[in-house]
Amino acid sequence: MGAVALPAPRHEPLRASVRWALLFGNFVTGWGLMVVVGTLNDITRSLQVSVSTAGQLITIAAAVVCVGAPLLAGWVAGFDRRRLLTLAMLWYAAGHALCALMPSYATLWPLRAATLLAAAVFTPQAAAAISFMAPPAQRGRHITFVFLGWSVASVLGLPISSWLGESFGWRTAFVAIAAMALIAAGWVFAVIPNGVKPAGLSARDWRHVFTNRVLMAMVLVTALSGAGQFTVFSYFTPYYRTALGANTEQISLLLMWFGAFGLVGNMVLTRVIDRVGANAAVAATLALIALSMLLWPLATTILGMAVVSIPWALGCFASNSTQQARLSIAAPALAPALLALNTSAIYLGQAAGAASGGWLIAHAGYGPLSWLGLGWLALAIALSLWVGRRQRALA
Q1: pLDDT reading at 308 higher than 90
Q2: How much of the chain, in percent, has pLDDT values that exceed 90?
Q3: Which residues, other chains included, contact 90 with Cβ-Cβ below 8 Å and sequence gap of 6+?
Q4: CA dihedral sign of residues 141, 147, 149, 150
Q5: Which of 82-91, 133-142, 208-217, 345-354 ranks highest by mean pLDDT?
Q6: Does residue 353 contact residue 56 with C-beta atoms inside 8 Å?
Q7: How many Cα atoms within 13 Å fall on the side-chain side of residue 211?
Q8: What number is the average pLDDT over the span 61-83?
């Protein structure tokens, strides 16, 4: 499984403005993904559906993106990334604006699913573009930097969504995301250079990806860890209100607290990943998440929840970032396919987690959620350690 060098870029060197534009695009993408989590209470009230039914907005959309990401990766392979990423943000803007106009759950969920196809394009193709433009020795740092946007979405987007949903309704939060997506589209178009086209992948390349056990195991780690997290994460706001008795302001503060430590974790990862290695970084982030899951039942007060959630927050977005970097470093020439599959795995994990968590709430309440999440995480950790051993054996 030797790494194949990417063709050298034939455009101007990577500029800081490019990194920041892609970071902002990921912020908007992450905010749009998490908006249902933040506004779940108002969605259930406004559309008159149960919490478990409303939570399936995450499951349904994630399932569509899971299938769409690798298919779209092949279709957009020849697109100039400047135009592709701009169009993805314009689609995201239009989709969220239209979602805000939907009168019922039955009309909202299919449009929500279609809207998130833009995320299936933007997230992996932004990573592939920065991987293509960055010097090989700095590839891990640059990929994790643009994924800081997801941490910022947790710091700002998730609590803002919660506050907007509780104060003005979920539709206002969707309109806010639409406006931010328009800004992202303009910024990306203004600073991304023309001619950023990672090499297209042949059918033989795709076969190599799908038949390589180590690479596919890496992707599966993402799905398992996502399932573990979203078993609980999807239901943060109703859990905080029901189990802890938190009010609107306290829920927003808990979400902002979680996001702030998520940002810290990703910033630390950006500085150390090229030094400690991606395998060690993945192991550390997953262990932090599992620790919070293990301690979750002890958090019976708002203060206790704030303390218990710190390890999870430190590892949450950092784990996705380091997985993206690990895949890009393992096989740079296959990065567009691997990052598309990894995005698919992210959404597969979210769908599995939200669905299993919703079923558990409907049948047993909130109590067992963290134990199910911990079970998913244990599988992810075991598989990730196997990947590391196989890579060392093949080196």
Answers
A1: yes
A2: 38
A3: 181, 182, 185
A4: negative
A5: 82-91
A6: no
A7: 6
A8: 77
Confidence class of residue 395 from pLDDT cuts 50, 70 and 90? Answer: low
Tell me what the mean pLDDT of segment 327-337 comes to.
79
Name the nearest CA neighbour of 99 among 158, 193, 176, 206: 176
245: alpha, beta or left? (left if phi > 0; alpha if psi -120 to 50):
left
Angle at alpha carbon of residue 130, lines to 126 and 135, rounded to 5°: 170
Q: Which helix (H) or strand (E) holds 166?
A: helix 158-167
Mean pLDDT of the chain: 85
The average pLDDT across 219-235 equals 92
**Ramachandran quadrant class, 53 (left: phi over 0; alpha: psi -120 to 50; beta: rest):** alpha
What letter represents residue 67's amino acid? Answer: V
- pLDDT given for residue 13 in this prediction: 57
Query: Who has greater pLDDT, 159 or 202?
Result: 159
> CATH for 16-394?
1.20.1250.20
Q: Which residues of 10-43 are buried (b: 16+ CB within 10 A; e: fewer)?
A: eeeebeeebbbbbbbbbbbbbbbbbbbbbbbbbb
DSSP 153: I
DSSP H or E stretch at residue 326:
helix 302-330
Amino acid at 330: A
The domain locations on the chain are 16-394
Q: Would you state the structure tokens that stand for residue 99, as one six-digit string?
A: 């979602």
**What pTM, to 2 d.p., does this model score?**
0.73
In single-letter form, the type of residue at position 87 comes to L
b/e per residue 60-70 (b: at least 16 CB within 10 A)? bbbbbbbebbb
DSSP string, 53-104: HHHHHHHHHHHHHHHHHHHHHHHTTTS-HHHHHHHHHHHHHHHHHHHTT--S
Instruction: Give the type of residue at 342.
Output: N
Cα separations in angstroms, 301 against 46, 62, 240, 242: 28, 31, 9, 12
Q: How far is CA 233 from CA 172, 227, 230, in A?
A: 22, 10, 4
CA 307, 262, 274, 325 dihedral sign is: positive
Top pLDDT among 51 and 381 is at 381
CB 202 within 8 A of CB 74: no
- For residue 114, give the nearest of 224, 26, 32 by alpha carbon: 32
